């Protein structure tokens, strides 16, 4: 693709740029698929402000408690990246809220050997840490490790291990229920309560909120709890995928924060009228019903964004870039090979921090299931060709 772009005749490129038929087709695509992103950006800002205020209330309530420390929220997923294929009224803004251990505790990540999952999974062991006053005897902080159960009980001090854990492991379902209860009780003091009515929707391992304005505008927010792996952009997520529903003490490895960071990096490098987000949204709509996952499409576009220079993603090249994306996907389907973006990728931007094992690993194949199932592979090719 890169060679074709570099060898294109400048005169033919100029004629392509001014081709009325092409520009008309781009206009039709933009209107039909509602490709503008300002409304997504507006919704994202409203949700980020909501989460900032909500976490500020939580810090005032839980600063001296045994509950996990809630870090600033991170917007992830297609809506926060700016390309959601959903209609405006159906868009869900997903926010990761990283958890840190409160004083007196430590989190230790352990590989989950009890559950067979296709996606990497871990359990988060919660361990007590000594908080005895030491050289400052005037402190009245009780120590779960060394104070007697009678002293703790008489002071009505509850333990994280006894409330949000199952055994010694952090429990995603218990954390979700705790946070949902907090949101319901805290909503009346939130500034947004004067603009929106709020409903907490059913969810086992996240907090889903429906915010409704008097004008009829609705915002859907999903708060997912996460634990960072070291200092990297890879997190463990409390929310399972639709295909995987492990025990509540199993946390799945998520690349959502790294993906969001990648798209921010691309936006900083791109021209003001870059079409990469429009291409993603358009192709996602085109692929509906094809059996191909949105994640496969997203991975394809991330690969192409590292292969095709930013200048070649200007709006006038939208049709060519869509063609590149679909052609790349078709080739990957034929070869039954689509490499995961974050494993063994030499083109990874330096701004994204990955665990050392990721950089040294062999790339994972997102189409491995097609390589193992000839019937599924044949079906996928037929469905794609119908497009």
TrEMBL record:
Q: Which organism is it from?
A: Leiothrix lutea
Subcellular compartments: Membrane
Q: Which domain of life is it from?
A: Eukaryota
Listed PANTHER family? CELL FATE DETERMINING PROTEIN MAB21-RELATED, INOSITOL 1,4,5-TRISPHOSPHATE RECEPTOR-INTERACTING PROTEIN-LIKE 1
Q: Which key words tag this protein in UniProt?
A: Membrane, Signal, Transmembrane, Transmembrane helix
Please report the name of this protein according to its UniProt entry: IPIL1 protein
Which family is this sequence assigned to? Belongs to the ITPRIP family.
Q: Name one GO cellular component term.
A: membrane
Membrane topology for this entry? Single-pass type I membrane protein
Major localization class: membrane
Stretches assigned to the Mab-21-like HhH/H2TH-like domain = 290-350
One Pfam family recorded for the sequence: Mab-21_C
